[in-house]
Specification:
The chain is 46% helix and 17% strand. The protein has helices at 33-37, 105-112, 118-122, 134-151, 157-180, 188-202, 209-215, 220-230, 235-253, 258-264, 270-281, 285-291, and strands at residues 28-32, 43-47, 52-60, 63-67, 70-74, 78-82, 88-92, 97-104, 125-128. The relative contact order is 0.10. It has twelve helices and nine strands. Helix 4 packs antiparallel against helix 5.
Length: 299
């Protein structure tokens, strides 16, 4: 069977090149959703960006968004963050408005040194916004300030855009904290983000929950309590989901052998990897690959 191909773009509709952004001011590109989707009649087909981080702000209207197979129907102001490599598609209904901000990795690198932002660079985030909230006002104001900087460039533009991007990520983080706050549990977001950051660095090492808890200076019980309360799953399930997510991605988008995938994910025994994968997906790695072989990379 001929493998399906998911295009990898710099900006949608333009094949990736070595210097992907036309705008040179700090590797920042901003468009309204109406302008971005107009050439495609409101529908942007499945694609991905290898070296770009995107922030979508839906201010009004409706949109249908699919990210790595998960379908979302948005009917209220929402922010979605899209790290590099995630396959996504959009369908914007008539009257929809907002912005899509595209950041090249050199600009993101200025903020990623702070682990508090690492959750955004690793996994897509869906952040509902309240029209009356202070965070929503600040997020919209910062994006408008970026637009002004790009329209009226001067010698300070790159520095100013870098500061505005960092401020935007801070307010997005605050918006997620507003959603997570409950009673005395206001430190949850920092703990969960630190856990996910540590997991991202070590998921192929198959650390125990005790190892994670020790490095985070907390207890396994605390990790489990926060994961169950806010994610509806245990800490161990979160670890398994991250390994499984990477397994699915490598089976779908590379041509590596099953043995190579197993080894890269830290499994010494390919048979054990197959059992692990089947338990989480109700099918073997071979069955999954046959049904989802996009074949976009070679080993």
């Amino acid at each position: 069977m001929k493998p399906k191909t998911v295009p990898s773009y710099a900006l949608y509709g333009t094949e990736a090149i070595s210097d992907p952004l036309v705008d040179s001011a700090g590797f920042l590109h901003i468009e309204t959703l109406a302008i971005s989707s107009r050439p495609f009649a409101g529908r942007i087909k499945a694609h991905r960006h290898r070296d770009l981080f995107q922030i979508l702000l839906l201010q009004k209207g409706e949109a249908q968004v699919e990210v790595d197979g998960s379908l979302l129907h948005l009917t209220q102001p929402t922010v979605i963050t899209l790290p590099p490599g995630y396959i996504h598609s959009f369908e914007f209904y008539e009257g929809t408005d907002g912005f899509i901000i595209t950041l090249a990795l050199p600009l993101m690198a200025q903020t990623n040194s702070d682990s508090r932002f690492s959750f955004m660079a690793m996994d897509p985030q869906v952040i509902p916004l309240s029209q009356q909230s202070h965070a929503t006002h600040q997020i919209e104001s910062l994006i408008e300030m970026m637009v002004v900087e790009l329209r009226e460039p001067d010698s300070w533009r790159t520095e100013m855009c870098g500061y505005l991007v960092r401020a935007l990520l801070i307010w997005l983080q605050r918006a997620t904290q507003d959603l997570d706050k409950s009673g005395s549990d206001q430190n949850f977001s920092a703990l969960l983000n630190d856990f996910r950051h540590l997991l991202e660095l070590n998921f192929t090492a198959h650390l125990s929950l005790s190892d994670y808890a020790q490095r985070l200076q907390t207890s396994v019980a605390t990790l489990n309590r926060h994961c169950r309360r806010h994610l509806g799953i245990s800490a161990q399930t979160l670890v398994h989901q991250r390994v499984n997510q990477e397994a699915r991605r490598r089976l779908s988008f590379t041509q590596r052998s099953l043995e190579q995938v197993a080894t890269e994910l830290g499994f010494e025994d390919p048979a054990y990897f197959s059992r692990f994968f089947k338990r989480l997906n109700n099918q073997t790695p071979s069955q999954f690959r046959r049904a989802n072989n996009f074949g976009t990379e070679r080993s």
